[in-house]
Amino acid sequence: MSAALFIMLGAIVVLWYDVISLRMEPDRYDSFIKASAEKYGVDSNFVRAVIYTESKFDPFATGDAGEVGLMQIMPSGAAVDYAREYGIDVPPRSKLFDPAVNIDIGTWYLAEGLKLYAGYKEAKALALCRYNAGNRRARRWAPENPQDDFLENIDIESTKAYVKKVMRRYQLYQERGSDNED
User: Fold this and answer.
1) From CA 112, how far away is CA 174, in angstroms rounded?
2) Where are the alpha helices (DSSP H) in the chain?
3) CA angle, corner 48, sides to 134 and 155, nearest 5?
4) Cα dist. 137→10, 112, 157, 180 in Å?
5) Is the CB of residue 33 less than 8 Å from the CB of residue 19?
């Protein structure tokens, strides 16, 4: 085996190890999660449950619809709304892979949904519908009586499953009494 090939294989192994270790050490994002959760008034366990469900803590994750990073931010959706809210340029797609930026935008977007549905018994679930399927659909699914259940109103099975997964993960984090276990 030539020295160049050996060096190249070694670099690939090191890179692969780095990617695997990023996914195996979700607590490495705790400082970003806690800072953004505090900044926007969102339970850090809730943010962590979204990250787990969206990307399994893989900062390089991408989705079929163009979502990127830990919280699967839409460059043409939440990133644009965030930039508009703060009067800044829309971050380029590459910047959305930065865990600090991604978590900040995703947590802000979750907080906006929680504010929007604050009067509802299932505010977190409605905020997740908004996060996953958009404002228009979440408004359509919201019950007339804020104290009513609404999961049966969700007519997109993948969104219904998403909400259930995040809420189960959130409950697990709550029961463990820790905000950093997986």
Assistant:
1) 22
2) 3-24, 30-40, 44-55, 78-86, 99-116, 123-133, 135-141, 157-176
3) 30
4) 48, 15, 13, 31
5) no
So what's the pLDDT on residue 27?
A: 84
- Mean per-residue pLDDT, 118-141: 97
Question: The domain at 29-176 falls in which architecture?
Answer: Orthogonal Bundle (1.10)
CA distance 14 to 23: 15
CA angle 142–148–151, rounded 5-degree value: 55
pLDDT value at residue 182: 44
Tokens of 89: 């340029």
pLDDT tens sequence across 150-163: 999 999 999 999 99
pLDDT in tens, 67-89: 999 999 999 999 999 999 999 99
**30 to 23, 33, 103: CA distances (angstroms):** 13, 5, 10
Active-site residue list: 54
**Dist CA 80 CA 68 (whole Å):** 14
What is the pLDDT at residue 145?
96
CA-to-CA dists, residue 85 to 3, 79, 82, 89, angstroms: 53, 10, 5, 10
